[in-house]
Design brief:
363 residues, alpha/beta, Rossmann fold, six-stranded mixed beta sheet, 11 helices, 15 strands, 15% strand, NAD
């Protein structure tokens, strides 16, 4: 046996728990799942959770923690913990954690995110909404709701020009990580041209967890690269992109990257997608641009704030689809998290750098 003791604090599917028990990487695997509470005061059901009732001796024994929400309250609660594998791509919900702020934890514990486990699901959602926009799915839904065979609601009378194809159009991807690379792969398969914008603006190989058969390993799919922080260089990016997809993290550079000025530089026919974080967009500016038909449409899976209040105008903005931060939810999510844990456990034991290793000095 390895001498490693795994503690899981998420309601992981039982067959995955058993797989972790039998994989040979852990001496013990203990499962104390988070309890989800129906009817909680929090309006976002996914976060309706209470801390699991984990016995003190389990915390003491644990050397590895697999978690979505919960960390030890202090280093003393889990003195032997050395590896934390989160089940979320973002870890901003751990901001303010007294445990991660501890100097001893920064020295002794490694933390890895789950970035990449949902890249294909998110990329599929993005392509679904792009196709729905180009092929006027909202009009087709109205035709069915009206039980009408009147094709002129979709195709002008005497014409066959119903909707544009996405083939030949240009998609601009901002943030060329695991999600952006899989968007590029799918878009290329549909015959779209790809532009990429990143913090460096230079072609780079993929990093982190990549689902087999997805992405763009060597960064060869984009026809051009742009530095996202260079406003002058980005003017060409906005002008050429028929679709703009935001896959970037929120930083000082990317906060409100989409604002009144950048929206004015986009094509009037452009379609905007945000699956990164809500703060990348100035939502008031987006609402104004959509209502004034300055751009053609938008799909946002992330908002600022979250949850989006029921009376927020974004819900009813013209040509805007809003979903509740759900595009990454896939039946393969937990399976890939367990796979990533096994990969990182093997790397930890051999002294290699973890996949999606996070810098604890930022906490």
């Amino acid at each position: 046996m390895s001498g490693e003791h795994l503690l899981i604090s998420f309601p992981l599917e039982q067959h995955l728990v058993e797989d972790l028990r039998s994989c040979g990487l852990f001496e013990t695997v203990e499962h104390y799942p988070t309890k989800f509470v129906v009817g909680s005061k929090h309006p976002d059901n996914f976060w309706n959770h209470e801390p699991p009732e984990i016995p003190a001796e389990c915390w003491t024994r644990a050397t590895v923690l697999m978690t979505m929400f919960w960390l030890p309250k202090s280093p003393e609660q889990a003195p032997n913990l050395r590896l934390v594998q989160t089940m979320s791509a973002g870890i901003e919900h751990f901001d303010g954690s007294a445990y991660l702020a501890s100097p001893d934890v920064k020295k002794q514990v490694q933390l890895a995110s789950a970035a990449g486990v949902h890249s294909s699901a998110i990329a599929e959602h993005i392509l679904m909404h792009i196709l729905a926009h180009f092929h006027k799915m909202s009009v087709l839904n109205k035709i069915q709701a009206a039980r009408s065979w009147n094709r002129t609601l979709y195709v002008p009378p005497g014409s066959l020009a119903g909707s544009p194809e996405i083939r030949g159009h240009t998609i601009g991807v901002i943030g060329y990580g695991c999600i952006g690379r899989d968007v590029a792969r799918l878009a290329t398969a549909f015959g779209m041209k790809v532009l990429a914008a990143s913090s460096t603006g230079r072609k780079a190989p993929a990093r982190g967890y990549t689902i087999a058969g997805t992405g763009d390993d060597d960064g060869s799919l984009p026809e051009a690269w742009y530095p996202s922080g260079d406003a002058e260089a980005m003017e060409d990016f906005w002008a050429k992109s028929d679709v703009v997809v935001l896959c970037c993290p929120v930083t000082k550079t990317t906060k409100h990257l989409i604002n009144a000025s950048t929206l004015k530089q986009m094509k009037q026919s452009s379609f905007l997608v945000n699956v990164s974080r809500g703060a990348v967009i100035d939502q008031d500016a987006l609402i104004e641009a959509l209502e004034n038909e300055q751009i053609a449409g938008a799909f946002v899976d992330v908002t600022d704030p979250e949850p989006l209040p029921k009376d927020h105008p974004l819900w009813t903005t013209k040509n805007c689809t809003v979903t509740p931060h759900i595009t990454g939810a896939t039946t393969m999510y937990e399976t890939r998290c367990a796979d990533l844990l096994k990969i990182n456990m093997a790397r930890y034991k051999s002294g290699e750098q973890l996949i999606n290793d996070m810098d604890l000095t930022k906490f």
